[in-house]
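Because showing beats explaining, we let one protein speak, sequence and backbone structure tokens together, and leave readers to judge.
___
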Amino acid sequence: MSRVRRALLVVGDVVTDVVARHRALLAPATDTAAEIRTLPGGAGANAACWAVRSGAGEVRLLGRVGTDAADWHERALRAAGVRPLLVRDAEAATATVIALVDASAERTFLTDSGAALRLSPADWFPELLDGVARLHLSGYLFFAGPSRETARRALRDATGAGIAVSVDPASAGFLTALGADRFLAAVEGADVLLPNADEARMLTGCSEPERAATELSRRFPLVVVTLGAAGALVAEGGAVAARVAAPPVRPVDSTGAGDAFTGAFLAARLAGADPVKAAEAGCRAGAEAVTVVGGRPPVRPAAGRSAS
């Protein structure tokens, strides 16, 4: 018999982030001074860590990593309170992202997906849902064949068991390459879609976030569109139900702000909050996230690693 369902299971990416903060414009063919740190990251892993930070009692993370950095990532996740379920890949390196963060705290990513998108159907077992109340799927999984099939199986098994499923589309750039129709077909059956404004526009063709949220809420029971410093939109049943404000902060690095929103939103939903209250919790976490470097809440120094 399954245990009482109370856990959050995140299936997604675990990434080594190289965050380069530069105040001057990038100078082609020469040097640009920057502050550079190597940190644990990944949209799925970040969301899991923020869920713990936001009060979720039990958070598990299924992801695929290279043997090159598996121990480091496992230690970092455990230090953050996440239960890692990491599949070690001896043939591909751990995913790596170079985040170029400018003086306005806006970031541009260079992404090597490595082992992350090699998560295969053989890595998934329905028993992973034992005790799980909510399943969250990182959208990055949908951008490669093997991981897309894995995510689809997880979604199907969860919905069949009556478990709520949320999806974060993750990347407007990768969505453009995959195509909106293919992505929407792959995530059909999810209960909650959590796009940012650019992703919502790309998925609907609507230039206004309110219109995009409205259109998406005709396909998914609950849609929450994040708007950065402007907060978030909550849409249900073909209409925007609420607009939630974000606390004003001085941003340092916007890396992981959406992941922080997702983690706090899911933690609040697990605790019984309605969608608007959960979005408010997400906005608070997102605001906190942009005041620190990297995509995760602060943890013990041992979770970091030098770039050497």
